Amino acid sequence: MSFGRHRWAAVAAAALLPVTALLLAGVSAGADNGPTATFAKASSWEGGFTGQYTVSAGSSTLDGWTLEFDLPSGTGVTSAWDASMNRSGDHYTFTPRDYNRVVKAGGSTSFGFNGTGPGAPVNCKLNGQPCGGGGTPTTTTTPTTTTSHDPGPGPNSYAAAPYYYYGWGRPQPITEVMSATGVRTFTLAFILAGGGCTPAWDGRQPVATDTRWADLIKQVRAAGGDVMPSVGGWSGSKLGEVCTDAQSLANAYQQVIDKYSLKAIDLDIENTEFENSAAQDRIMRALRIIRQKNPGIKVYVTIPALQSGLNRWGNDLVKKAVEVGVPIDAWTLMPFNFGASDLGQATINSMEALHRQLKAHYPGKSDAEIYRMQGISSMNGRTDTGEFGYQSDFQDMLAYARQKQLGRFTFWAVNRDRQCSGGGSGSRDDCSGVTQQPYDFTKIVAQYR
């Protein structure tokens, strides 16, 4: 409707004023649009799909949101990112992370998930109201039949990237792992020094001439996933020790980043590289160079743990990072080999101790910020010292990671995520030593994204 196209007589105009005021008031009231949510099936493949919800604030700022929906029988969600997920039967509820809890007026945020089965969400509600904002949920579906248009992992998927060792422990076909578990990102072990300050897989295959691991990475990315190499580990010759200065060490790290077009990297600092003040200093100064040259890259540091959190060397490493001024996305502890009878609770105890220690190192950060700087890297089944990490322990770790919104939850290793032949309980590199179905532990970790 348009007003002012004709010149009205003064009396007629006066008579219309109350009506016009009412109409304009109605337009103003109608402009107060409430929040809505729309669903898109971004990609699909045999047996699964990637879905995304976009939550729009409408005309008022949305301070917190809860989105829930049902899935038909035979369809489920295996993992999610940019939201916390809870499930009750076929009913799923998603709540925001700290960083996307508030959506400004006129703005939007989104979260994604991997699903299994042929169905799509129904009965969607946003803050208790229909997602469409007017009684009928708004759904947009754009299915595909290949993975070539998969948008790739969500920005938090590196937080749930289990270790996969390509040269050890009868590695399972990596795309089989993806389709069976919903995990989309892997931490590939290990890059060591291969004759001087030169990065090489297992210290043998130089990164510069590598085709084997490059082909593996292509497979993962073609299936909609990604990887981050892990530099270091327990054994072998370490770059942090062999490279003589921070710049040459940074050059070695950069070679890996450039070769595989990385968005994230893991530094697994153990053994002689960990208990070495000079190596610690070189590593942190090299990471500062890497941060400057690669804005936005995620950097995870994985180190040994005590039930009381960081040991002396761990504290020294964190102090060095603070001194040098290099941000770490998650200080990831390996909370096992304690001899604990309850590895889940022992892990939580170690994480709470780490939290107190990091608060002392980063006094300007809130509790929530500190928890996001923490990570768990556990070990499934029988550990090196004979304790056991069961599925129930991993469920406890997952619940804790979700509650505290940790920066990372991973484990060693996918290669061991199967039952030993004959049901044996020995510690082996290709099975867990506990009763399990294939990929039980990977499926648990895959839920944390």
Automatic annotation (TrEMBL):
Q: Name one Pfam family in it.
A: CBM_2
Domain of life of the source: Bacteria
Q: Where are the transmembrane segments?
A: none
A single Gene Ontology MF term assigned here is: polysaccharide binding
User: Which GO biological process entries does UniProt record here?
Assistant: carbohydrate metabolic process
Residue ranges annotated for the GH18 domain, each copy included? 159-449
Q: Where is the signal peptide?
A: 1-31
Q: Where is the composition biased (Low complexity)?
A: 137-154
CDD domains the UniProt entry points to: GH18_PF-ChiA-like (cd06543)
Record keywords, A-Z: Hydrolase, Signal
What is the protein name for this chain? Glycosyl hydrolases family 18
Q: What organism is the protein native to?
A: Streptoalloteichus hindustanus
